[in-house]
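User: I'm writing a short report section on ligand binding and want a predicted complex to refer to. Could you take this sequence and 2-acetamido-2-deoxy-beta-D-glucopyranose and write out the structure as tokens? A short remark afterwards would be nice.
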Amino acid sequence: MDTFALAAVLLFIMGGVTAQVQLEPQNSVVLQSSDARFNCSTRQQAWTVMIWSLNGRLALTILEASGMLNSSNRFSAIDYSTAGESKWEFIIRNVSRNDSGEVSCQIQGSEPVTTGLSVQESGSVEVLGTNWTVMEGDQVVFQCLAAGWFPTPQLSWTVADTLVDQQLFNTSSVEVGTLVNSNSTLKFTAVHNVSVACLASIPALIIPQRSSVFLVVEKVEKPVHRDQTVLIAVIVSVIAVVLLILIIITIVLCCKRRKRAQTNYQGEARAHSQPPKEGAAHPGEGQGQDNLGYVTDPKANDTNSEYTDSGFWKFNYISTIQVPDVVKSNQEANDHYGTLGDNGVRKHRHVTIV
Ligand SMILES: *[C@@H]1O[C@H](CO)[C@@H](O)[C@H](O)[C@H]1NC(C)=O
Ligand SMILES: *[C@@H]1O[C@H](CO)[C@@H](O)[C@H](O)[C@H]1NC(C)=O
Ligand SMILES: *[C@@H]1O[C@H](CO)[C@@H](O)[C@H](O)[C@H]1NC(C)=O
Ligand SMILES: *[C@@H]1O[C@H](CO)[C@@H](O)[C@H](O)[C@H]1NC(C)=O
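Assistant: Sure. The structure tokens for the complex follow:
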């Protein structure tokens, strides 16, 4: 090493021509265990030696004529030089955290050019618990653990692949040695099935690390069931009451009808079983029309009308006024039933039935 350095110094002294040098990229951020690459280029043709150093320590010497002088497993370079430009890519393999710092390239006869190197560590991320099953409307709390990161990872959440607002979750971090553990809590109300993912990222990660679980939301059917049960109970009760009323009405009607039929039958039976009236010359005379002109008591003439047993109103008129023919015919009919008075005098009555 020392001989190489000495040689470089000698070459620097021998040269002494200033060159325009460019170092890229500026501030490289890489993950631990990966490779860090830097390009050093100049349009100046007349250079002899290029020196790469990491955090002030000589890493690699490149001669324009013969290439790398002291390559190793860790430090190497690729020549990308073209006709108009000299360009070497310096590669640091398997970087570690303590490689972070400054990388510089110095071409003979010019000031060293420096850039930053930052080595970061990507840890693990996990949403605690497996797939969840909750009831609709439940408040769910998700926890995300990110362990072994450097620097502090930025945690974020997605619900159904949509980024969750930062105000809806809390994140805290603790340093454990040279690493950081972070913890994030997300709360929300379960509405429907969703995938919930926690993302952890650091600048060196192109794609954030993620962990996701699936939230299965079961629709709350209990209250609905209860309501339905109540509704069904009410409907059944109402139907039962209506049926009962209908049955009662039917029974009452039937009884009434049966009673009526029975009384009718009894009446008929009585009528049939009654013997003919005494003295009735012809059968059925009992049902025949009464002699409306017949009066048992002659003194009953004083009353013009009276209610009789037969249920007819009798109107008795003494024949003092002239009556029309219609009445006459009646009169004739009644004459037939003319009776003899106590004194043996035949009485004539003219009766009009209304
Ligand atoms: C360096 O330059 C070469 C050629 O232009 C390019 O392919 C390579 O990606 C560059 N490397 C970096 C680290 O920029
Ligand atoms: C840098 O870290 C590596 C392993 O990560 C270790 O082997 C090495 O000794 C460390 N170097 C310094 C200077 O700390
Ligand atoms: C975040 O923390 C604050 C204070 O501890 C608390 O009031 C708030 O409810 C938390 N929010 C969430 C989403 O956990
Ligand atoms: C969680 O749910 C997803 C989507 O339904 C499924 O692919 C995955 O296998 C489930 N994981 C577990 C641990 O049950």
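A remark for your report: DSSP finds three helices and 22 strands in the chain. Confidence is low (pLDDT under 50) at residues 276-281, 298-321, 326-341.
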